[in-house]
């Protein structure tokens, strides 16, 4: 079979949250040629662009890789689905659009792990550079960046009850939680622009696609990196049944994500030697950390019935759905312009850490976003998740066949401290949901756990319902020790001309929905590459 080959200076694998940033920033120099390869299709779908339609791409086999973990021992051997974007914009095209930077201490801890140049002071300029915040520019916020960040309206009475209940419990109001104090209740900020999802495809890629030095190819399934010794020369991929290559004169950059990037590395011969040998893969570079250090935010949902017809889902059925769609199509406004995650909180629990370690997200109706099928119902629900887990998982090969998904082991609650924090988080959530602010809305709980439950009862509940926030990171982490896969600018140890820029390089999970930190990291490393070119 003949193999079609093309040559560029940079080949980027994955047009997701990081890849779109890189494609834009590197091609600002008209003398730099870039090829961006994406396995999925375009993001030109109403169901991606309309914020309220986020359940559709989550359920889709077209826009979602639909990974699934191996049986999780601490969760009664349940397999946990992991939604990862498979289209232009990647996971920023299918996520809940909640924008959270994380706490400055998160990034300062990275420096303590041997990742120089990643303190919060080092990262802040890139958070500022990437955003256009609705509140305008100030010393902590950006006003002219590509990514639009808006304040949610939070007008529904359930949102108000959530905020007041948190304050009645004793939490403060954090205000702009992305500038200053993060702890307390807040109205969320979202990557939405004039009622439309603002993914990195919309913010970064679309404005760059007319540049003659940028080639964007969809439907390209990358199977391996092409090496000459330990030097990356390009990638091999299949497109429409045809084997093709994209060769890179300067660098191959993996931006395939926390699951995709280590998978491609191992298929290409970069990983733990014995593991690769067991699958008959010739070794290029022994890198035992590839696939290790997997971290995710585990979440438990607490569901409550509501009085009357206050839940928003009544407006998402029948004629209400038609009205929602028409209002959004005509004016880009109304319920179609929200993801419904419009309030939240950060608070402390369990371990006595020096800053908050738990998060609330909230919906004014009942829904299960973790399963493959999303059903809506009357009520409201709190999602409590642990921000900085102690447990670590791993991604390993099942086969040398690139089309076979890797084995994903999250190892949730492998470290007992994680369960202690989550039990305390659930208990405090039950206290907040029992405050007077909810008295005229709540008609009782749906879950078999309450304020009088024992710790053992709450733990059993968590093991039955715990799931993922879809925030995996860390499987090709930056660092200088033997288990680190990349250096502080994403260059893969033991190889040449190979870089990784995506969530896999983050050494420790931030106290945040991870999309914003990943975009920041891509901005930061893009600047380093541009400086190197100059």
TrEMBL record:
The family annotation for this protein states:
Belongs to the GMC oxidoreductase family.
- Give the organism, scientific name: Mesorhizobium neociceri
Q: Which UniProt keywords apply?
A: FAD, Flavoprotein, Oxidoreductase
Q: Which Enzyme Commission number(s) are listed? A: 1.1.99.1
One of the entry's Gene Ontology molecular-function terms is: flavin adenine dinucleotide binding
Which residues take part in binding FAD? 95-98, 222, 503
The top EC class, named as a word, is oxidoreductase
What is the name listed in the Swiss-Prot or TrEMBL entry for this protein?
Choline dehydrogenase
